Queue: 2 jobs
Job 1
Amino acid sequence: MPLTLYNTLTRQKEAFEPLHPPLVGLYLCGPTVYNDAHLGNARGPIVFDVLTRYLRHLGYQVRYVRNITDVGHLESDADTGEDKLEKAARAKQLEPMQVAQHYTVRYHQALAALGCLPPDIEPQASGHITEQIGLTQEILNKGLAYESAGSIYFDVNRYNAEGGQYGRLSGRVVEELLAGAGPRDLAGQDEKRSPVDFALWKKASPAHIMRWPSPWGEGFPGWHLECSAMSRKYLGASFDIHGGGLDLMFPHHECEIAQNEASATPSTGARFWLHNNMLTVNGQKMSKSLGNFITLSEFFQGSSAALSQAYSPMTLRFFFLQAQYRSPIDLSDDALQAARKGYRKLMNGLRLLDKLGEGLAGQDLTPEPAPTQPGPPSASQQLRNLAAKPLEFLSDDLNTPRALAALFDLLKRLNTLAANPTALADISPAALHEALTTYRTVVTDILGLRDEPRASAEELLALALGFYQEAKAGKAYDKVDQIRAALKEQGIVIKDTKTGVEWAYSEE
RNA sequence: GGUAACGUGACCGAGUGGCUAGGUAGAGGUCUGCAAAACCUCCUACGGCGGUUCGAAUCCGCCCGUUACCUCCA
């Protein structure tokens, strides 16, 4: 079953074929590291983590690039045009890169907890100023950008006049954008030939800390330039997939495409543009003013007023996977509790696999021949059919909710078989092996859900020590020796002292 | 104001012109020292009003509501 993905560029699902099989180039817009990531920020990385994992499962060799934006995103409400990062740095009396480093580390920690594999390349915007200046120069050379008051702007009208399709991705029309500008007063508009033009390079004001020399004086790159420059550098002018949140579709990705097309190597950049939908909380968008803005660390620690308790990273991952990535998803306590139980059920399934797999050792796993006579499918065949579903649904534009539903169907059958030896005997070893392998592969390798141990090792140890003391008091020395030996295997030694029983790590 | 989505049972969410998704919650049952898990059964919904159709939750129109983008944002 071929993988199809919904391409925003064409507004339809398309069969996915890499430009240069087996290689796949994937670019995802990464975080702006000027504060902690919130729950909504986690959706994209999780979605594209599953996509990467699935592509790899299909045998593709994926180069996954996700940038770190540590420069160049202007504060919308700051008429000084001050950089967000710089503002955060000033407030805390820190070096801007110190702020960026701090939040980058925290971002990595949160995503690792969420089971997201690290990208293969994680380029920083501040480390690619040369490339961004180069791209700006390319666009200038083609006459599709102009200098104004020390800044360089992309000339949208000229670009479109020469055949460009600014607005193609987001379905916008330049004239409507102009008409709809309405009451908003945007800073620096008078420097531009048209309000729809956007900055490739901005002149730094004297107060600006983050600044780099350029052919046009000291300044910093525009809001959209880094993704074009870095995707080109690491994936080529044309690559396979570009991802990001729906809110980045316009203007960010629209501008990226324009920059790519206006470069010396014209291309839309990615062939497939994928957009994940947003997260709402109790039916409302997440926002600071509404007080439902939850950072990932608040979520994991349970310190958010919007939620009654802490939820684990895997609960959040499962929660996101319950919705298709193009649908909005609503977060609430009830929804999270449901997700947590569903997730645990899936994990208990992993343990069931071990039990069912015990009997397979040494068995012939050659698939039985297809039935020669028409008739109702055999039990083995039925199991096979169930096991085929999860991957089928994933190949349909990454339909994770249907894949999960299919996994639960499979799990139900496996549970029934585990409780019913007679029925289990009717299943061929090959079919059983296939079902077990599929379940594990889809759950852990592709969906990236891993067992999150809840039991505390120390409490379990305390429990064991309690049994030890009871056995000792009852002079049940066989039992005592048994417990000692078992703990020894775990690297724990029990020490009887005058004041009671203690434990220590074995020093052997 | 402009643009684009969405509105599904108690909750979260798939689906989509006729064939009950799934998870969670609730009710009953099997199993069981207790409990849990598991399994079985039940709860059968698609914002409102019109229209198209043999048949619509699914297509069309209008209305209501929500969200996103238009401005940094996943």
Job 2
Amino acid sequence: MQRNSVKVSMAVVRRLPKYHRYLGELIEKDILRISSKELGKIMGLTASQIRQDLNCFGGFGQQGYGYNVVELYKEIGHILGLDKEYKCVIIGAGNLGQAITNYEGFRREGFKLMAMFDINPRLIGNTIRDIKISDISELEEYVVDNDIVIGIICVPKENSQEIADTLVKANVRAIWNFSPSDVKVPEDVVIENVAINESLYTLTYLINEDNLDI
Amino acid sequence: MQRNSVKVSMAVVRRLPKYHRYLGELIEKDILRISSKELGKIMGLTASQIRQDLNCFGGFGQQGYGYNVVELYKEIGHILGLDKEYKCVIIGAGNLGQAITNYEGFRREGFKLMAMFDINPRLIGNTIRDIKISDISELEEYVVDNDIVIGIICVPKENSQEIADTLVKANVRAIWNFSPSDVKVPEDVVIENVAINESLYTLTYLINEDNLDI
DNA sequence: TAGATTGTTAATCGATTAACAATC
DNA sequence: TAGATTGTTAATCGATTAACAATC
């Protein structure tokens, strides 16, 4: 548990990957020390918020100095669980499934893609970056036998709930769902429904905001 | 402007696409009338919040009855600007660019993909769903000549800011950026930095939450 | 009319910002 | 030591929830 066993709010949790990413960029630029003020300027947050956020997990800084970038990067990576390995499967080997296979940030950081599944006979048996595409009918058994932790759903929304149910039955710990329809899972399974079109619709809202007239 | 010219908070705006999506699902199920209470149950929100959210834009409901699903769906679609057409280009014709080309929610709703661009000579000249892939050197001129409104960035993070700068120079109104590095744009350009790996890292955080010990 | 459910105001809750003593 | 910057408490701000009169 975190300091004092206080649950960290989702608002903070959702900022952690962003801290991790910006700190990674600082390391690439050989910037090894940073104050909350400077980091805030880069990330578009207040210094106060950064200090509040980080202090949910511990006092990583040093008065008069700021934060050690490499150390903080590692700490946040640890908090996010990025120093562990996660066996994954992707369901749906179309463009999106393949895009994720190649996506940095997925290929790094201990995500171990074990297999892909599809219903399309033309894809089954093929290999993408050494990962075999199997028939979806083999999904449940494979997940059980190989202790798969994360199931990644890249199928159309019509089939996503069914796939999710199969994954839950086969005891995955978490589901990363890219179909544009929220899947429901029991409380003990972690779910992230991504719905990438939502950010596009936010974009069009903002394009038109100034001349909106209801 | 909205009712009383009060700016709607981003918290509300980011829920609008979700309302739109759930209402679309209700229509598919021939449910033509819904109360804030029922909708809240389906979406995991309180009835109160739904009524507050919708009343930022107008009184779409009717006392004693609830909301007309089709009407509300159309209203929210209008608020989101989904009843207009947006000329788009995709930069980066790899898996991710192709995945977006095929993604529902992008293909529908008035997003008109005009062209794709890449640096890979093996892709240039090819066609995806009747969309030609051109050399990235032609991007700026094309965007200017064709009044492109939205640029969609699907290139690695090393090149994303440069592409964004080109798009801004060529007067796009908005950028939808999938590279896992935030691009900066002037205030008058709308930006959505998606960073899909952030939701994955949130997932791993939640997997480990209970046994986190700093 | 009676029941249901909205629109809207008020109350509460939580998240962000400000301030400052502690300390490197 | 003096200057810088943290960790943390208090103040503020904004978002969510509750309550209820209005009304279909």
